[in-house]
Amino acid sequence: MKFAVVLALAAFSLSAARAQTTQWVLEQSTLTWHIMHPMHDVDGVSHAAKGKGVCSAGFCDFLIAVPVNTFNSGDSNRDLHTIQTVRGAEFPMVIVRTRIPELETSAPSIDADLVVQFAGQTAHYSHVPFHRIQKGNEVEITGTVPATCSDFKIERPSFLTVPIHNEIPVTVDATWKQQ
Amino acid sequence: MSCHWRRNRPPKPALSLSCLLLFPLMTIAQSSGHLPDPPQPPPVVSSSLAAGASLDLPDAPLPAAQNTAPPSQNQIQSPPPSGQQPPQQSAEPSLGDLGFSPTQTQANAQLQARLNKRTHMLKLHQTLGLITLAPMAATVIVAGGAKAKRVRNADGTVTNAVIPPSDANADFHAALGSLTATMYGITAYYAIAAPKIKGVKPKGAIRLHRDLLWIHLPGMVLTPILGGMALSQEENGQKVHGIASAHGAVAWTTVTAYAASAVAVSWPIHLKF
User: Which of B47, B74, B75, B88 to mutate to test the interface with A (most CBs of A within 10 A)?
Assistant: First the structure.
């Protein structure tokens, strides 16, 4: 009898855990790419990212996407040239996926493995550190994705025959809300 | 399943209780789609979180010729936390869940072709524009030799009589000016003919670059006309007068506006070596 009750409770717990999912929604975000050149340092900023996270069975799957053409560097000519260079009309979205253990969503720092689709290529970034700050019922995540032009086979634009640096780090400041 | 199987056996209260407890829970779980109907075998590729995720990438608009870069130095090699297997992929959010409009997510090959053509033509515009600076500067430098000289008296005072420039100097100046004007025209052609992208308003440094056109374009038209008039007057032994006397000022204004335009398009410049 006792064994059966324990078995039933265990089954109940397991079923409840499997059935329970929590979701996260990206409330607001600032994504900034940074390019470096001996004559220029330029930032391109987008606030148009959308994202969703689904936690189930101890893991959380996050998806963040942002249209390439929403990045603004303050110069329309440069932005159009950027879209052309990264083939942003053919591949209009930057898509980032990550899966982290659910326990890490409440940790002060998150070590994320990212899969990034951009410019028709897919790159993997392992152990990208993000900082987490709890702000009421929202969570702010900040970090930098160490992207490079070569990761996405992007031909580096040049100015006065000098190409930009290969590194194009993308800083992320994203505020998530649990639903 | 086990509940039906137990019906034919002698009733056991504990097992019946467990069946009663489990049945509604299983029903809830199935309705929310988190438990697969048939038991799934464990995923074959599950040693890497990212590898698992990459198997089910979202429905991004991808042309047929898409390449997927082989994971290089950034390849994830870390196994998942010990004792934890990644769950089934069905719960993963997809691009469609995020609410982007189709126009934002759909590939546009025509637009890409326009952007490619635009960039190609503007690169030519940039290159030719910079090259044009050379004959422009040379024209200004040799301008002194193409100018009439005032006759001076023995005591150094200037008379009204003029010595016209030598034909060689005047011709050289005129030839360089013509070359500059021709190259300027070709440079301008590539900027004007480059495809425009609808809905994009000029913003930032490119606006000043474009606005300076209203100074150097009239200057490039006026300068050779005024130069021709000035040369004609000098060849007739006259002092350059009237509107022709503005030739030098117009030329310098044009050169300044043109050079400023070249700098403006790349402004702000932060030299960092």
Answer: B74
Give the pLDDT confidence of B209-266 residue by residue, as tens digits: 999 999 999 999 999 999 999 988 888 878 889 999 999 999 999 999 999 999 988 7
Residue ranges of chain A whose pLDDT lies below 70: 1-19
pLDDT band at B156 (very low <50, low <70, confident <90, very high): confident
- Which amino acid belongs to residue B215? I
How far apart, in Å, are the Cα atoms of A52 and each of A63, A118, A141, B32, B146?
5, 18, 14, 18, 72
Per-window interface: A 2-61 vs B, CB < 8 A: 3-5, 7-8, 11-12, 15-16, 18-19, 21, 36, 38-41, 50-54, 56-59, 61
Distance from CA of B170 to the nearest CA of A (A): 34
Q: Is B36 helix (H, G, I), strand (E, B) or coil?
A: coil
Round to whole Å and give the CA distance between A84 and B110. 12
Q: Chain A window 99-128: which residues touch B at a Cβ cutoff of 8 Å? A: 99-101, 113-115, 117, 120-127
Using the 8-state DSSP alphabet, how is residue A88 labeled?
Answer: T
Q: Which of B17, B111, B122 minimises the CB distance to A8?
A: B17
Query: What distance in Å separates the CA atoms of residue B105 and residue B93, rounded to the nearest whole number?
Result: 16
Residue of chain B whose Cα is closest to the Cα of A67: B104
Q: Which of B104, B106, B124, B271 to mutate to test the interface with A (most CBs of A within 10 A)?
A: B104
CB A88 within 8 A of CB B61: no
In the numeric block, the tokens 């199935």 are attached to: B30
Task: Tell me which DSSP letter residue B266 carries.
Answer: T
Distance from CA of A54 to the nearest CA of B (A): 6
Residue of A6, A24, A68, A90 to mutate, interface with B, max B Cβ within 10 Å: A90
Q: Which residues of B touch A115 (CB under 8 A)?
A: 50, 53-54, 57
Q: Which of B90, B99, B87, B105 is nearest to B56 (CA)?
A: B90
CA distances from B54 to B46, B57, B83 (A): 11, 5, 21
Do A120 and B62 lie within an 8 Å CB cutoff? Answer: yes
Find, among A70, A53, A74, A23, the residue nearest to A130 by Cα. A53
What is the pLDDT, as a whole number, of residue B219?
97
Q: What residue of A is the nearest CA neighbor of B86?
A: A59
Averaged pLDDT, B150-159: 75
DSSP H/E element including A76 = helix A76-85
Flag whether the pTM goes above 0.90.
no
Q: Give mean pLDDT, residues B39-52.
A: 34
Confidence of residue B7 (pLDDT cuts 50, 70, 90): very low
